[in-house]
Design goal:
Blueprint: E1 2-5, E2 19-20, E3 26-28, H1 36-44, E4 49-52, H2 54-57, H3 64-82, E5 85-86, H4 90-106, H5 111-123, H6 125-144, H7 149-160, H8 171-174, H9 182-189, H10 191-199, H11 206-215, H12 236-250, H13 262-272, H14 279-288, E6 290-291
Antiparallel strand pairs: 1-4, 2-3, 5-6
Length: about 300
């Protein structure tokens, strides 16, 4: 049994202890399987944390060692992802690795966020790995745009957390092995709002990260979601993460489609730069970032 924040509940978890209202009335009985309706009820009654049964998902109480393991997983995935990129200089490779390492280490200061990432990995490893890749590509773009270290870290943390709202999407939709129905897609689109809600009150990472979570599916021509923002109304960091998000999604295999060849993905990104994506950012992305089948030598 472990305590979890309501924001981190995954549909299908089993309630380990009964939940009572502030007046002492029972709201949910122990042993029930938590569904969307139950989770919404907890929010209506301002219940922030509950106890869930570890055996359902194989979880245990998060501790310092578990936090370190999650950070190590992020670093390992990042190291593997960096392999195959072509950089303009060795200094850029070192800078990228250092920033990613510092981002991962800073997460140790917020176990709530680490727990969310850990839950995300358990529920949907694709989204977790995708988030790490989007973080890397976003920081690479930031380096190309001459961001200072503090801006790179803000951008990278927001990119890493951009899909955290998917924790509130039913697992049967999130991991569906076929194309989503229109109704299911509308549900998935809510992850932008859910991510904003999860992050907005986080004192350490919340402000910029919440904007990125909310806006990374907005498009410069106003055709995106959830707010249909246009061009400069979208935060610069959100526009960067949008490019990284689209590129990684295109170049990753999914059960319902094969990945796109990287050169074709580059061309597609360029075509989107004329209307959907920020043209300046897509130009930087295409000019600075390339892939090649070589291993980058570690600076160690």
């Amino acid at each position: 049994m472990r305590k979890v924040y309501v924001d981190n509940i995954v549909s299908g978890m089993k309630l380990a202890k009964a939940v009572f209202s502030h007046e002492g009335r029972i709201l949910l009985a122990s042993g029930i399987e938590l569904k969307r309706r139950s989770i919404d009820k907890l929010r209506r009654y301002n219940i922030s944390q509950i106890y869930v049964d570890d055996e359902v998902f194989g979880f245990s109480e998060i501790d310092d060692e578990a936090c370190k393991q999650t950070v190590t997983q992020i670093k390992r995935l990042a190291e593997n992802s960096i392999i195959g990129y072509s950089f303009s200089s060795t200094a850029d490779v070192i800078r990228l690795k250092n920033v990613i390492a510092e981002i991962a280490d800073e997460l140790l200061d917020d176990k709530h966020i680490l727990q969310s990432l850990s839950d995300l990995y358990t529920v949907d490893s694709y989204t977790f790995e995708h988030s790490v890749n989007v973080c890397i590509i976003s920081v690479m773009i930031g380096i190309a745009m001459n961001f200072c270290k503090s801006r790179l870290k803000d951008l990278g943390i927001g990119a890493l957390l951009h899909d955290i709202g998917k924790l509130r999407i039913p697992e049967e939709i999130l991991k569906k092995p076929f194309r989503l129905t229109e109704e299911e897609f509308e549900e998935v689109k809510k992850h932008t709002i859910y991510g904003y809600e999860i992050l907005k009150n986080n004192n350490k990472f919340g402000k910029i990260s919440s904007y990125i979570a909310l806006e990374h599916h907005e498009r410069c021509d106003g055709s995106g979601y959830p707010l249909k923002l246009e061009r400069n109304s979208i935060h610069l960091y959100s526009r960067i993460v949008s490019v990284a998000d689209v590129f990684n999604a295109l170049t990753t295999d999914r059960v319902y489609r094969k990945k796109m060849e990287k050169q074709n993905a580059f061309k597609y990104i360029m075509s989107l730069g004329s209307h959907h994506l920020d043209k300046e950012i897509t130009d930087v992305f295409i000019k600075y970032i390339d892939f090649c089948p070589i291993r980058i030598v570690s600076e160690n």
